[in-house]
């Protein structure tokens, strides 16, 4: 059987490439990693920009790049783009075609999906494969619910992707603070936290840390412990929707699809968080993710650089122990965790 292909429609204006399209590489990389898909980027441009665009996109982390050109593309002409995308589809038969959430991509992909008689779904937030079917998830009813949508077996799906959810980083750009194997035991936590503190104390680096609290934290006393630890670590604190619903944290600190999307954080520590996608999509841009959870099969570990199977209580004791000694060494600071209400 031929290898399945995921195709990213890379939008360009003159010799500039749209960043939203590049971020889609994060999704194609997931398809490559988890399902063995071939990844491919398609750029459609005027012939005179072909060479420059080839240079620009040539070293992207994709298995194949196709820069298709046409000397008649001077102005935005939906028909030509649609024809060329359709021609590409007929030749390569990708199983998933992804575009950014822009007017251009939405228009061209919609015209293409009609021409090819393929289902299209807009504003998607997650993608996966099950039983040879492509699945996607998108918000419905004004974002109050999510719907899973799938194709028939081995049938192509065309999707545009919600803005700012995914971020493409080259593997070489990613420098995790700590590297230890997944599924390490709770006994390793002390070393990991000490490493974080060491990095934090290096004044040349101003690492931003967020501690995420999930339902597994158990009670308000443990939440207060986290707030205390966060102050010592100069970290921010946020939580899952369950935690907000329990009134353990204010609504303004909810992280996720219906809360805030974290940007610029170097480290996210997830305490007792199951890893529902509605939460995870808010933390995917954090450089390093450490998760502590009792359930070794929890979804949160799938998205973590370090997964620690263990009790949140034990983790808090370790964190407190490390930071108690740390606090004494900190002279003064005006930075701490803050809530709006
Ligand atoms: C429309 C919609 C929008 C949503 N938006 C958001 C959003 O923006 N943000 C968000 O977070 N959620 C959102 N949700 C909710 C989301 O689907 C999940 O229900 C929620 O994220 C789960 O929170 P949780 O992981 O804290 O709780 P749970 O699912 O209850 O998970 C608790 C985890 O803690 C672990 N655990 C339990 N005890 C311990 C212990 N002692 N030590 C260690 N681990 C332990 C468990 O193994 C489990 O994995 C939304 C849902 C909908 C329908």
CATH superfamily of the largest domain: HUPs
Shape: elongated
Question: Count the helices. How many?
Answer: 10
**Quaternary structure of the protein:** single chain
In whole angstroms, how far apart are the ends? 57 Å
Q: For the record, what CATH class of the largest domain applies?
A: Alpha Beta
The CATH architecture classification of the largest domain is 3-Layer(aba) Sandwich
Structural class: alpha/beta
Average pLDDT: 83
Count of discrete domains:
2
**CATH fold label of the largest domain:** Rossmann fold
Could you characterize the architecture of this molecule?
With 341 residues, the chain is α/β, with parallel strands linked by helices. It folds into 2 domains: 157 residues, 3-Layer(aba) Sandwich (Rossmann fold), CATH 3.40.50.620; 155 residues, 3-Layer(aba) Sandwich (Rossmann fold). Helix content is 31%, strand content 25%. The protein has 10 helices and 17 strands. The strands form 4 sheets. The protein has a 6-stranded parallel beta sheet, with helices on both faces. It has a 6-stranded parallel beta sheet with strand order 12-17-16-15-13-14. Strand 2 and strand 3 form a beta hairpin. Helix 6 runs parallel beside helix 10. The termini are far apart. Bound molecules: flavin-adenine dinucleotide (FAD).
Structure characteristics:
341 residues; alpha/beta; Rossmann fold; 2 domains; 6-stranded parallel β-sheet; 10 helices; 17 strands; 31% helix; disordered C terminus; binds flavin-adenine dinucleotide
């Amino acid at each position: 059987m031929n290898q399945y292909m995921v195709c990213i429609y890379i939008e360009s204006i003159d010799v500039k490439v749209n960043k939203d399209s590049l971020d889609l590489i994060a999704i194609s990389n997931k398809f490559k990693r988890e399902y063995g898909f071939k990844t491919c980027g398609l750029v459609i441009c005027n012939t005179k920009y072909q060479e420059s665009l080839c240079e620009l996109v040539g070293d992207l982390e994709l298995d194949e790049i196709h820069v298709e050109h046409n000397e008649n593309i001077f102005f935005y002409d939906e028909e030509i783009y649609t024809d060329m995308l359709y021609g590409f589809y007929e030749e390569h038969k990708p199983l998933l075609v992804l575009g950014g959430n822009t007017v251009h991509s939405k228009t061209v992909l919609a015209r293409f999906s009609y021409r090819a008689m393929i289902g299209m779904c807009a504003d998607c937030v997650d993608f996966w494969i099950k039983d040879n079917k492509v699945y996607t998830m998108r918000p419905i009813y004004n974002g109050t619910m999510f719907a899973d949508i799938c194709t028939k077996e081995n049938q192509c799906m065309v999707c545009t992707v919600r803005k700012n959810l995914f971020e493409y980083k080259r593997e070489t750009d990613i420098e995790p603070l700590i590297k230890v194997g997944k599924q390490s035991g709770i006994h390793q936590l002390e070393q990991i936290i000490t490493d974080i503190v060491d990095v934090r104390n290096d004044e040349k680096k101003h690492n931003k840390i967020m501690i995420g609290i999930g339902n597994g934290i158990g009670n308000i006393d443990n939440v207060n412990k986290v707030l205390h630890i966060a102050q010592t670590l100069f970290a921010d604190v946020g939580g899952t929707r369950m935690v907000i619903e329990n009134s353990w944290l204010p609504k303004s600190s909810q992280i996720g699809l219906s809360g805030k999307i974290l940007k610029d954080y170097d480290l996210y520590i997830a305490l007792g968080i199951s890893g529902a996608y509605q939460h995870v999509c808010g933390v995917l841009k954090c450089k390093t993710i450490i998760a502590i959870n009792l359930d070794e099969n929890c979804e949160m570990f799938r998205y973590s650089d370090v997964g620690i199977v263990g009790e949140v209580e034990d983790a808090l004791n370790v964190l407190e122990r490390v930071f108690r000694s740390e606090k004494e060494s900190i002279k003064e600071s005006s930075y701490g965790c803050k809530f709006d209400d």
